[in-house]
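As the next step, I selected for study a record pairing a protein sequence with its backbone structure tokens, which the following lines show:
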Amino acid sequence: MDNRPDENPTEQIKARLHAAFDSQIPNFASYNLVAGTGVAGSGGLKVIGYRRQPAELIIAPVNANSLESSEDAININNTNVNQLAKLSDGGYEVAISSGRVFRFNIPEAPSVDFHVDDAVSIGATIDQKSDAEDFADFMDHFMNTIEGTENFV
């Protein structure tokens, strides 16, 4: 991928975030993606993939400077989730059976910078308002399936 800024920095940043997720997930096309900001588990930027059938999350931490994967993506589904919670600040907490806990927010318009090299960096704001709303609906569904109030499909 060309590292130089192009005419549309937002599209370039979105493409890099997609690539960080897609490179780790063989069936990446079956997930909706949102950019999240983390406070715990792996603080910082992450790409979060989610799907309703079967209900699952994939958290892919991203290096904030290079927009490349910073560690292996973590799959979260009914086999390894211990806790799901919506936090008072509008964020989410997800705990898995390994003991790892993720706390993150899904902003409607996250600002992301990409450092092309020592002298050049580009920044953009990603409009993901409708995606953030869809993710909130998904999390309500996911929490209900874990609590047993909805079918896990």
Q: What stands out?
A: The two ends are 37 Å apart (CA to CA).
